[in-house]
Design a protein that fits this description.
alpha+beta; 2 helices; 4 strands; YetF domain-containing protein; DUF421; UPF0702_alpha/beta_dom_sf
């Protein structure tokens, strides 16, 4: 997990070799937004891609 409950998970990002810039670029590309305001979580998938979960999703 790279982002959870409004916080960047710096240790996990470091282990996954993902910079803050990489995470924000992926956020813009995948979610078409500039901030994490509507994001509940971000995950590094096995294939190396980053996926995002929107807030309010059940």
């Amino acid at each position: 997990m790279l982002f959870k409950e409004g916080k960047l998970e710096q240790d996990n990002m470091r282990r996954a070799l993902v910079s803050k810039s990489d995470l924000y670029a992926s956020l813009r590309r995948e979610m078409h937004v500039e901030t994490f305001d509507d994001v509940e979580a971000a995950y590094m998938e096995n294939n190396g891609q980053i996926s995002f979960v929107k807030k309010g999703r059940d």
